[in-house]
Amino acid sequence: MVHAAASELRVHVGPVSAFLEEDERTVVKVGDREVLVLAVRGRLFAIGNRCTHLPAQLRRGHVLPESFEINCPVHMGRYSLMTGEATELPCETPLPKYAVEVVDGELYVFVPDTPLDPPRADLQSHAAGSGRPAGLHTNKEAK
């Protein structure tokens, strides 16, 4: 069992059965964080939903199940789902990686109880006017 640190929030995401289907993706908004939750080859992962190179939504990216990686849908940079590390240029900065826990069939994600660093001004112009919804989203809504 994972225990939340004093500076972490334990966020209930839903029944784990809803996340075990391959290619099912859910974004959970916690404060200023967007957490992408997905299962690959039977393993659950929670990472930041925004590419660190440009603010593209990774929930729309292609998953490489053999290497547990996800591509940015804009420029095909790549990240490890296991560590959040950038594994393919132009991505260089790692994604936030979040611990997951299943208790009595329910999925929880542990998110730091501190704000993210302020977004860079050069990235704000890309995100402005995107009309993206807040809250909980699935990949079905993204299609």
TrEMBL record:
Residues 11-109 form the Rieske domain. The keyword Ligase does not apply. Pfam families: Rieske. It comes from the Bacteria. InterPro entries: Rieske_2Fe-2S, Rieske_2Fe-2S_sf. GO terms for molecular function: 2 iron, 2 sulfur cluster binding; metal ion binding; monooxygenase activity; oxidoreductase activity, acting on paired donors, with incorporation or reduction of molecular oxygen. Gene3D superfamilies: Rieske [2Fe-2S] iron-sulphur domain. Keywords: 2Fe-2S, Iron, Iron-sulfur, Metal-binding. The keyword Iron applies. Residues 119-143 are annotated as: Disordered. Belongs to the bacterial ring-hydroxylating dioxygenase ferredoxin component family. This is Rieske 2Fe-2S domain-containing protein.
